[in-house]
Write a structure and sequence with these properties.
Layout (H helix, E strand, L loop, with lengths): L4 E6 L2 E6 L10 H16 L5 E6 L10 H4 L6 H20 L5 E5 L2 E3 H8 L3 E5 L3 E3 L13 H9 L1 H9 L3 E3 H6 L5 E3 L4 H13 L3 H14 L4 H15 L3 H12 L9
Parallel strand pairs: 2-3, 3-4, 4-6, 5-7, 6-9
Antiparallel strand pairs: 1-2, 7-8
Helix pairs in contact: 1-3, 3-10, 4-5, 5-6
Length: about 260
């Protein structure tokens, strides 16, 4: 088992599991590298018919690893450019896989992890899960395809408000606005996600692939270009005083004092 990402392939279903629950399953350098490698393998996997994305522990993921973003050697903009380059490539190839993607989520789903989930085809959520966009809270613009995936699921106006106000939504609200597809009691989460994955794995895989391709084109979001725009934007914002203040404040558990600089 890898340090950050576990992998299992059985009966046509590949399961990717985030495996750092004690750290909140962060999107850090190790996870990004392993995700990129696994997605490349999935594109070559014979007999692949469905992919399940899940995580260990109480929370799905808190998103980016803020401790790694705090005063890194070489500067924050350089680190952000490095991470987004690999992460965005992995996400784009994951979402474009010609098989259904099922996300199984519990607890907190935050920041870039939320976009990772929102880009999946079916999102099954535990009743006690919550969904937040923390970018503005720490003085950063969004990455991980957030502007595209959330707009696709929620509509652009609702997604923009969600990100600007750094909202945190409960599962009932997330279901009502289309951010998730199915909500079940916590104890039924794994069984429900497994049942859906099994149903999809027994379905017309080639037809599913074409359906996914057509919906990606119909969305008109130009995902590849949008990912690049996000990467460049967050690298620029990472150099600002507000970004440094936001990260410092969150780690110190205090209210940030943004100056618009």
């Amino acid at each position: 088992m890898s340090r950050s990402l576990d992998f299992k392939f059985e009966d046509g279903i590949a399961t990717l599991t985030l495996t750092q629950p004690e750290r909140g399953n962060p999107l850090d350098r190790a996870l990004i590298h392993e995700l990129k490698e696994r997605v490349l393998w999935l594109w070559q996997c014979e007999g692949l018919r469905c992919v399940v994305l899940c995580s260990q522990g109480r929370n799905f993921s808190f998103g980016g690893d803020l401790r790694s973003l705090h005063s890194p050697s070489g500067g924050l903009p350089a680190l952000v450019q490095e991470w987004t380059s690999d992460l965005h490539m992995a996400l784009q190839r994951l979402w474009a896989l010609p098989v259904p993607l099922v996300a199984q989520v519990q607890g907190a789903v935050m920041g870039g992890a939320l976009s990772l989930v929102a880009g999946c085809d079916i999102v099954v959520a535990a009743q006690e899960s919550s969904f937040g966009s923390a970018f503005a809270r720490i003085g950063l613009s969004c990455d991980s395809g957030t502007s595209a995936t959330l707009s696709s699921r929620m509509g652009m106006a609702r997604a923009r408000r969600f990100v600007l106000l750094a909202e945190v939504l409960d599962s009932t609200t997330a279901l009502a606005i289309g951010l998730v597809d199915i909500v079940v009691p916590n104890e039924q989460l794994t069984d429900q996600a497994s049942a859906i994955a099994g149903q999809l794995a027994r379905g017309p895989t080639l037809a599913y692939g074409e359906i996914k391709r057509l919906f990606l084109r119909a969305g008109g979001s130009q995902l590849q270009a949008q990912l690049e725009e996000e990467a460049l934007a967050i690298a620029r914002i990472a150099a600002t005083q507000d970004a440094a203040e936001g990260i410092d404040a969150l780690l110190a558990k205090r209210t940030p004092l943004f100056k618009g600089q």
